[in-house]
Amino acid sequence: MDNFPRMTTQTSSTPVPEGWREDNRALWDERVPVHVNSGFYDLDGFRARPDVLRDFETAEVGDVTGRSLLHLQCHLGLDTLSWAHRGAARVVGLDFSAPAVEAARTLAADLGYGPERAAFVTGDVYDAARAVPEASYDIVYTGLGALCWLPDIRRWAETAASLVAPGGFLYLAEFHPLTEALDDATGSRVVRDYFSRDAQVYDEPGTYADRDAVTVHNRSVQWQHTLGDVVSALAATGLRLEFLHEHDVSLFPRFENFEVRDGCHRFPAGHPRIPLIYSLKAVKD
What we know:
7-stranded mixed sheet; two-stranded antiparallel sheet
């Protein structure tokens, strides 16, 4: 782990709250057992059918047979192990929460994957180059809900790009930052500053997997990164952007008027559509 000073700064030079990393880690560590036992993650169902990837992800990433894949900020490792199930020769998941990594290792063993096929390591994403076992991977993958926990998107891009093998690529799927600027009821009005780089500090009990869970470590610090910031950060690393796609579906009821259709959360019929998720692929030539 890096030894950070008591106060660091974001790309925009806005202050990063003291203790942000420790607070976020304590929050996630406490929620791991809640998530392991939740219907949201449904680990028993996953053991029976180990594939939770979204259709657009598998279509955009393509065939992973025989390839190595690194999953940054992997949490319980469901997405990581889904890529192994789809034929990746070796998958590595990294997360800063030691309890999450232990849960992922247990799940991998339950599925019959040894560490030579599916390895999980504890480490800070900014220090991933030193934490993971190999110097580079055919695919570096980051899934939904990861970037908001990082204050410095340029440093993330530099680290992720450094781990992509020549001829490989980085694939990112993430919730669209536009949704954070809109009202939570209908998503029809702009009520927050899309371009704000300020840290967002929350103190909320429970978790998205169980709203009624009793929790103690409830303070979290998050950041919103614009689409331009993310793409520009990756472009500055020398990776070549192959595509940037926007999707009008979500994985959870982001707005109160959402309906579930075709297995996804969507706006009601007739409601103007906006991008809810984006995905991109950036190649190392």
